[in-house]
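Appendix B. Extra example for self-study. Work through it before the problem class; the solution is given directly after the inputs so you can check yourself.
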Amino acid sequence: MSNLDFKEQLHEYTQWRERLHGAIELYQDWRIRYKLSDPHSTDIVLNILDGLKSDKITLAFVAEFSRGKTELINSLFFAETGVRLLPSAAGRTTMCPTELFHDPKGSYIRLLKIETRLEETSLIEYKQNPDLWISIELDCETPAQMQKAFKALVETKRVSKHMADELGLWNEREAAEQGIINPETVEIPCWRHALISFPHPLLKEGLCILDTPGLNALGTEPELTLSLLPSAQAIVFVLAADAGVTKSDMEMWRNHVCNSRGNNKQGLAVALNKIDSMWDDLAGEDGYEESIQKQLQSSASLLNLEEKFVFPVSAKQALLAKVKSDDELLERSRLRHLENYLSEDILKQRREILMETVNKDIGFLVSESLNLTDTKLTNAESQLGEFKKIDFDNDEMTGKLMAETRDRQNAYMAHVENFQASRKVFAVQAKKLIESFSSEKIEIIVARTKDDMSKSLTTYGMKQNIRLLFDDLSDLLQDSVDITNETRLLVKAIHKKFQDDYGFKEIEPQLFSIKQYQFELEQIFEEGEAFRSSSKTTMTEQSLVINKLYSTLITKARNILTEAQHDALTWCKSVLTPLMHQIKEHKKEIESRLYMLRKISDSKGSVAESITSLEAELEPLKSQRKELAMIIKSMRLKQSQFSTLATAA
Ligand SMILES: Nc1nc2c(ncn2[C@@H]2O[C@H](COP(=O)(O)OP(=O)(O)OP(=O)(O)O)[C@@H](O)[C@H]2O)c(=O)[nH]1
Ligand SMILES: [Mg+2]
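Solution. Structure tokens for the complete assembly:
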């Protein structure tokens, strides 16, 4: 498979996403046209549409320095420029995490000064403020100019040992291992982070690439391990076949790669790079193959990963082969297998994840729309059937029907009153639920631990405070669990009442659950634990790193709780909507029945006319139902949710 195939697959994926977006837009139009939209469900639909529009596929490349990450990125994605676009060389090259993507606003390199590590501002906040970055414009027509501009990524400078220490970039033990003892100055990267935007076809399709420097950067930049890597769809961990799995490769794999996936190995692949260096003239082709297989097996076993996710490659051969259009060399580089995995498996997984979100958020709304449309159609059909059978010349019979319908109307008024009363009770409970996530409660906890944190004199003390923070946040969520349970019971009881007492169609209310947020909170705590206990951070008293870890964890925890509150609010506002729709529908049905009966009893001659008009009313309902069925089909939602669909299309 060539680079073009990855491009084609990505293109196909983008088209699929656009089709799904189009289908959901059609559904939203349908809801508006048939007056079935309400502000909260519209919010849900618009959110999904936004998410689909801004969806990106992020591939992260992680490894110790000099394993060949950058060379691999060049060979996978940028070979057609004909140059080694991103700087790759022996020794430490890439000095700061680098994100490559396409921003329609322009082509640039943005560099964030290393000194910003001293500020409390998070990377996410910096990203929202381009003025705080050094910006270099890119001339995308000339790859050579771009190649030159990219040299900025490897810039370093010398600063005093004190300054390096303050920035969290001085490691006494590591330096001693390299024979550096008490130096006056230390070499550090100039930049903390780089953002590169240019209109490469793959990047334009929504691909983002994250190139990272070795363990040093990961160990000192918690936001990278805890935010950027977990949000990547795939992480390619690069090993050098000639070096095997070293101690620091292992540490990185465990603490930064596996942890960032919450120990779920989905979307992880290992590139066993530099296989060309294993070539031995004396051993020949068989010996070469044998040593690659041996290295593959031992790497997979050490990393505890299935062998099919380990891809032996030679990035160097692949880049050269692509630039020189040498098919034989490309075959020898074995890049094709890794490309296949990225384009097929990763894109397929992403598709499934998106579909799951759409099913979860839109599925419920669609199924409610379908239910309501079905009810309307069935009612209209049975009313027509009934009217056709009635002997309208019999005044007594017509009177009886009128009286019966009026009774139904009175019963309906009772439903409405009952519904309003239930809604009031629910509103009180809902308020309690939403307040249980209130940001004030969170900020009190954060302020308390922050104060303790500033008083901590040791790294150990600071770490203990992080634990306390999470214990308090977990307790807060536990309170919400109890309130959520009460609320769920209430919602179930309201629905049961309308079903049992008034014969309403069964509605399975969507129930709010906070398990997901508890899980997410636990997970970031575990990731934080792993990060703080990784040997890189325990080796030295890195208060700056711990402080950064603390603020990264707080930002993440705050986001989770804000999301929980937002979801609770949306849920509270929309959970009774299906019931309300049924009540409204019921009202319309009774009114139309009364109207017809009155019309018929006033002028007996128009019975046939009334039946014709009832028949005519059926047609628009049928087409409303048919349109919906087509939209559902084009969305390809999980069919099990729509049991009546088969009869409609
Ligand atoms: N023999 C051989 N050398 C390679 C291969 N891939 C990369 N290299 C060399 O290994 C060195 C390091 O490659 P880089 O791509 O800069 O490695 P990196 O992982 O990005 O390193 P840092 O940016 O320092 O973290 C360079 O001299 C490359 O030419 C390969 O497949 N075979
Ligand atoms: Mg590099």
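Self-check: Residues 390-602 form one domain. If your reasoning did not lead you there, revisit section 3.
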